[in-house]
Each structure stands twice: as structure tokens, then as C-alpha cells.
Amino acid sequence: MARLCGILTAEAGFKTGRGVTVKISQGCIVLMADCNEVQELREQLYQAKQGIKDVLVYLNNNYREKITLDQLSKKFRASVSYICHEFAKEYHISPINYVIQRRMTEAKFALTNTESPLAEISWRVGYENVDHFAKLFMRHVGCSPNDYRKQFKNSLVAQAYLLPNT
């Protein structure tokens, strides 16, 4: 700080005196406060990003369960809009669509690598209603679960599509 005051005094045209020193000191204090504020904002941004990563980990660990935005809001002590906005900003997908995508990925794997009935696969990936699951599968994958199974059963092509995007 003394070095900065010396530089500022030199820039002021070598003016000396108590008034100049006070002004320079005030400038240094403002500068330090601004630096502290920037550091606090950086820490908040880091914590926010870490919080959104925690949401992703939670979704990956619990995608089979019923998950609502209100539950996420309470669990992570943040508003629904904040979670949705920050999650979409970081991962380019909403939290709920991420859960659906995760479930569909698991369902595609089960369809192509097991003989499990559709109702069991539906339940295993988090859908109690097999008809609802089949409609969502059709919407997100582009074909019915049974057609997907017939087309890609034990296929390396299907397994290549199952690689995670995150």
C-alpha cells in the first residue's frame, strides 16, 4: 500500500502535503474494497457452479425416483427459477429434461442388453406407468421401445449412442 501511495504521489506531480496523502489513502481504500468485492463475487460464482454440479450429481444418483423442481429447490436451498436457469446455462438442458434423457439412456441400454419385459424396464428407470414411459420414449427416441429393441438388440451401434453427453 505504501508503494502504491508513492506511485500515486509521483503521478500527482510530486505534490505533497496532508491533503494529497489523505486523497491517495482514500483512493487506495476504495481500490482495496473493490478488489475485495471482486473476490467475493468470484467466490459466489464458484459456489454457484459447485451447487449446480451438486444438482447434477443428485439427479444422476436419484433419476429413478420421482424428482420435482420444488424438491430440488428445498434440497439445494435455491429458487426453482435459479436452479433451472443455472442448470440450463451450465448443461444446456433443463433439470427435468436431463432426468428424462438419463432415464431414456438407461432404458435404451436395458432394451438392447436384457430380455426384461417393458414394464420392468419402465419401473426400473423411474416410471410407474408403462404407457407413459412408452409415450415419452417415442417422443424422445423416435420409435417405440419394442421397435428400438428389435432394431438394436445386442448392437454395437446402440451402445455407441449410449455414451453420456456430460
TrEMBL record:
Residues 53-151 form the HTH araC/xylS-type domain. Keywords: DNA-binding, Transcription, Transcription regulation. It comes from the Bacteria. GO terms for molecular function: DNA-binding transcription factor activity; sequence-specific DNA binding. It holds the Pfam family HTH_18. SUPFAM superfamilies: Homeodomain-like. PANTHER family: ARAC-FAMILY TRANSCRIPTIONAL REGULATOR (PTHR43280), ARAC-TYPE DNA-BINDING DOMAIN-CONTAINING PROTEIN (PTHR43280:SF17). This is Helix-turn-helix domain-containing protein. It comes from Salmonella enterica subsp. enterica serovar Heidelberg.
